[in-house]
Structure formats: structure tokens, C-alpha cells
Design goal:
Elements: E1 3-6, E2 10-13, H1 20-27, E3 45-50, E4 56-57, H2 58-66, E5 74-75, E6 85-89, E7 115-116
Parallel strand pairs: 1-6
Antiparallel strand pairs: 1-2, 3-5, 3-6, 4-7
């Protein structure tokens, strides 16, 4: 099983192929996903130190392009666990002031993943 390290929190064994936002939420719970994991906001953003995927969903790439954020962070709702990863959560629910983190994202990437490699 891949290992997910959430910086400042700990290391967790997670299922291969699970959405990163769910792996974080199920093990740490301290992440926002205001749009429900649909790549419409950036509240689930993370910074990779190990294991960053080399491909983006089209939805993630378009959203990050709109905010000039390609290379700065990734949207965890659009990343799949495909090996060991280490991430820093950039928008923690516990300090956000939000009443809730958002609707739990679906198990599958939404919108349907169209993969792009920049």
C-alpha cells in the first residue's frame, strides 16, 4: 500500500487509486473542499514534496491556469494516489473559519477525468 505523508500530521497507508482529497480527509480530516471536489475552487490545494503526479485532469489544469498557479500547488480533488506521496495541506479546515469543509467528494474524480500532460 502506498504511504501518504501529510506534513505536520503523520504518515498513513492508503489505497492505491483513491482520490488524494479523500485520503487526506479520511486520515486527517483537516482539509477544505468547498465545491465538493469538482475542480471549481481551490480550497483543497496541496503542495507536493514527494510523489507529485505528472499529469493533470483537464479541469484541474484549466482552473490552475485561470489563477496562474501551475507549478505552485495542485488540487487534491483531481489527483489519484499512485505511489508514496508527501503533501502539505494549504487550506486547513480547522483554521479556515468555514462552518464545514464542504460536501464530501465522490469516490471518482469529477468532472470525468480527461488527462493532460503539460
Amino acid at each position: 500500500m502506498p504511504k501518504l505523508t501529510i506534513e505536520g500530521v503523520g504518515e498513513f497507508e492508503v489505497d492505491n487509486g483513491i482520490r488524494l482529497v479523500l485520503a487526506i480527509g479520511d486520515n486527517d480530516g483537516d482539509i477544505n473542499y468547498a465545491c465538493g471536489g469538482n475542480a471549481r475552487c481551490t480550497t483543497c490545494r496541496v503542495k507536493f514534496s514527494v510523489g507529485e503526479p505528472d499529469k493533470y485532469t483537464k479541469a484541474e489544469y484549466e482552473k490552475l491556469s485561470q489563477t496562474n498557479s501551475i507549478g505552485e500547488y495542485r488540487l487534491s480533488c483531481q489527483c489519484l494516489i499512485d505511489g508514496d506521496m508527501s503533501v502539505a495541506v494549504l487550506d486547513r479546515f480547522s483554521i479556515s473559519g468555514r462552518p464545514d469543509p464542504g460536501s464530501r467528494p465522490d469516490d471518482n474524480i469529477t468532472p470525468n477525468a480527461e488527462w493532460v500532460v503539460p
